[in-house]
Amino acid sequence: MQQDTGIKSFLLVGSNLGNPLAQIDHGYDLVNEECGQIIHRTACHKTEPWGYHNQPVFYNELWTLETDLKPLKLLEKLKNIEVQCGRKPRSKWYARELDIDILFYGQEIVQLTKLMIPHPWHHKRLFSLKLMQEAAPNFSHPIFEKTSKILIESLPKIVH
């Protein structure tokens, strides 16, 4: 599904089971085919697990997606892509084959049981903020009205 315009959505991608780099690449191809056009892809970074620490390191990227899909339809397609890439049901914050989170959907704020945009943990995760800073340094968080750089500076020093 290639297109030239749409809502700019920022997707945080991670994997730490199986073949993480291949799964991320497969997910990238599927998102490009089914959800819109990825117009920017950050470098892949190794990061320590967040939430539950007794698991392998994660590989994380951030993709900038232009999409015409509404937020819930985008979420539905992303969850299907995760399964196509081998994701199995597990507890929150545990290891996974592929995880694709919607960090932002333009400047929209969505507060639903199954979807919260901006992502509710983004501003507390150094790795997520750093990837966002790499992808879109001038993007302002729609709730806090601050860039990732400023949000990083406001994190407790122990997180750095």
Helix-strand pattern, N to C? EHEEEHEEEHH
For CATH, the homologous superfamily is named as: 7,8-Dihydro-6-hydroxymethylpterin-pyrophosphokinase HPPK
CATH architecture: 2-Layer Sandwich
| The CATH class | Alpha Beta
Terminal CA distance reads: 39 Å
Q: Major sheet, described briefly?
A: 5 strands, antiparallel
Radius of gyration: 15 Å
Question: Using DSSP, what is the number of strands?
Answer: 7
Mean pLDDT: 91
Number of structural domains: 1
The name of the CATH topology is Alpha-Beta Plaits
Quick one: overall form?
A: globular
Q: Helix coverage percent of residues?
A: 25-40%
**What is the structural class?**
alpha+beta
- Contiguous low-pLDDT stretches (5 residues minimum) are none
Number of helical segments with 4 or more residues: 4
Q: How large is the share of residues in beta strands? A: 15-25%
Give an overview in words.
With 160 residues, the protein is α+β, with helices and mostly antiparallel strands. The chain has one domain: 7,8-Dihydro-6-hydroxymethylpterin-pyrophosphokinase HPPK (Alpha-Beta Plaits, 2-Layer Sandwich). It is built from four helices and seven strands, in the order βαβββαβββαα. The protein has helices spanning 20-34, 71-84, 126-135, 148-154, and strands at residues 7-15, 37-41, 45-47, 58-67, 99-105, 110-111, 116-117. The strands form two sheets. Strands 1, 2, 3, 4 and 5 form a five-stranded antiparallel β-sheet that branches. Strands 6-7 form a two-stranded antiparallel sheet. α1 (20-34) crosses α2 (71-84) and α3 (126-135) runs antiparallel to α4 (148-154). The longest helix is centred in the first third of the chain and has 15 residues, at 20-34. The termini are far apart. The mean pLDDT is 91.
